[in-house]
Amino acid sequence: MSIFEYNGSAVVAMVGKNCFAIASDRRLGVNLQTIATDFQRIHKIHPKLYIGLSGLATDVQTLSQKLAFRHKLYVLREERDMRPETFASLVSALLYEKRFGPYLCMPVIAGLGDDNVPFICTMDCLGAKELAKDFVVSGTASESLYGACESMFKADMEPDELFETISQALLASVDRDCLSGWGGHVLLVTPTEVHEKTLKGRMD
């Protein structure tokens, strides 16, 4: 078994019309044993920028703290929040810096950039970026997430439809992966507000 599958995870980000949604499962496990059902994989950088981290849970927590610290330093120096593209480059550089003893995480970054244009990207544990215009996925459930998102995604969805689509895609996918699940955590971000919801899923 790969070390990336040790704790199990499912993270997905999807774009809509001037909005985006990012969602993750809530299970923390050790192989097939469930340890917790409220694990936080999505971390807020600022109100229009979020990062979801799949992979080894200890590295998820370490990396999220380091990135929050780096962003605070940036705000002190520049007196403004970081653009999503800039933040993606920061994450990529931070991961590549540790390439000989990498953080065992695969990030999903989602944010609203200039003119409220949504930006999403994912990368591997060495920081190789993969940009997308529709959706990005990460974690042990990524194969079934690709299938669900491919069949459900439509361009320029309104916030309500986007929330429904990403929620159904996440729940359908974690049901097909025994290492992730126990409900979901969804954040829907528009230019004016952030909606945060918890999904109930199968509990087995």
TrEMBL record:
It is found in: Cytoplasm; Nucleus. One of its GO terms (biological process) is proteasome-mediated ubiquitin-dependent protein catabolic process. Keywords: Cytoplasm, Nucleus, Proteasome. Its main location: cytoplasm. It comes from the Eukaryota. The keyword Cytoplasm applies. It holds the Pfam family Proteasome. Belongs to the peptidase T1B family. Component of the proteasome, a multicatalytic proteinase complex which is characterized by its ability to cleave peptides with Arg, Phe, Tyr, Leu, and Glu adjacent to the leaving group at neutral or slightly basic pH. The proteasome has an ATP-dependent proteolytic activity. Non-catalytic component of the proteasome, a multicatalytic proteinase complex which is characterized by its ability to cleave peptides with Arg, Phe, Tyr, Leu, and Glu adjacent to the leaving group at neutral or slightly basic pH. The proteasome has an ATP-dependent proteolytic activity. The 26S proteasome consists of a 20S proteasome core and two 19S regulatory subunits. The 20S proteasome core is composed of 28 subunits that are arranged in four stacked rings, resulting in a barrel-shaped structure. The two end rings are each formed by seven alpha subunits, and the two central rings are each formed by seven beta subunits. The catalytic chamber with the active sites is on the inside of the barrel. Component of the proteasome complex. This is Proteasome subunit beta.
